[in-house]
Amino acid sequence: MVIRGKPILAFGGGRTLRPGDSVETAEERIVREKQTKKFLIAYKESIGLNIDPKLKLECEKAIDEGNSLMDSGRLKEALPYYEKSELHGLAALQWSICQDSLRKRMYEKLLSHPNPRVSKKARQLMFSFQAMEMLKVKGSSFMEGNTGYQDYFEAFDKDKTNYKAQEEKEGEAMGICDSFCVSDSNGLHFVAALRGNMH
């Protein structure tokens, strides 16, 4: 046996709106809009989104200076610009990027930041930690030593003016490349000879 619910008319429904009819009167709409504005202002104050324009300009200038230092690779010099900024969302994000591996907790806090740009970037950066956990990687020994590409990358650093190519290093690199080429071709001949003997 199926128990049916009451008809909609029992709940006071049944109002028909014709094209051009309004759901609420003009006075009700004005009252509702005022109340909505009041709630929005209270919400913005409660989460700290109301910032003095002068203070915001100072903070954005400090963030830009910190970003330029960070882009040129001077991370330790960039940190104070982010720490003293009152525009906390972007400043905290950039500060957190500077101290990436040591500051996983900062990313977790920024995930719930009200600024969507900040929370989206924090979510993207948290993915690297999740990937490390999924792949069971504790750290990287690959980046600890000199990879041999440092001179190459320093050549493109716009703030570095004293880059000089060293002929000795180029000669060593060419010798290593030649030995790799010879050893690779010898290895191929050896494998081919083994396959020929096996068949």
Automatic annotation (TrEMBL):
This is Binding protein. It comes from Arabidopsis lyrata subsp. lyrata (Lyre-leaved rock-cress). PANTHER family: CYTOCHROME C OXIDASE SUBUNIT.
